[in-house]
Every structure is written in structure tokens, then in C-alpha cells.
Amino acid sequence: xxxxxxxxxxxxxxxxxxxxxxxxxxxxxxxxxxxxxxxxxxxxxxxxxxxxxxxxxxxxxxxxxxxxxxxxxxxxxxxxxxxxxxxxxxxxxxxxxxxxxxxxxxxxxxxxxxxxxxxxxxxxxxxxxxxxxxxxxxxxxxx
Length: 143
Description:
Layout: E1 6-8, E2 14-25, E3 28-34, E4 41-42, E5 44-47, H1 54-66, E6 69-81, E7 93-103, E8 113-119, H2 121-124, H3 131-139
């Protein structure tokens, strides 16, 4: 498994860089239920690997987790979150959240996800979201 890109946070702690893909179709959002911590429903996303930029990471993660091809993207938000932990023990992440257009038929990565489906905002409100994704949906005023 490649090493995640590592940096230092504003308060000098180790920090990973991550991307998230907000994928929407017919007023529904594509969400996965993570098989590894942090648990919960989330958009497709993950760490930026060393030697990779945010755009390459976005394309790779969408392909790895959902078998989809990114055809267009727009950066919605970027922010350092000093409360966002990962399974590798890092507690600070610098996130890039993209809105993505994709092609293909979604197929979940069975090693990384318990499920994958399209959800309306009303359905999302009832799900146990991964904390960072609850934050993004609230920040975007979607829930």
C-alpha cells in the first residue's frame, strides 16, 4: 500500500492530505459504507499518496472505490480539519472536496466498502455518516 502524502498542520502536527468526491445523479448522491475506520457512510474519497497531486488522487480513488471514470470536476471546498482521524493514526487532514461528473456503471470495491448506493438528501439525513462527510454535507447546507 503506498504511503500517504504527509505534511504538517498549522499547529505542527503530522497531517495527511485527502480528497473527497461528491458524485450526484438524478438528485441522488453516491455513498459508500466504509469497511475500515473511520466508519460510516461517505462519499468516495481517500488519502493522496506520496508523489501524487490532488487531481490524480481524485481520479484514482473514484476508479478504485466505485469503478467510475471522472469526466469533469470542480473544487468545492478545501480545509484543514484538526479533528479528522484516520486508521493510520493521523488526527489532522487537509481535505479537497470535489464535485464530480463521472461515466460508467458504479461497482463497489468489496475490500474497502460494505455497500454502495445512491441516496436522496432525505435518506442521507437518516444515515450514520462518517464524521467528515456529515461535516461536508452540513457545510454545503445539504442536510
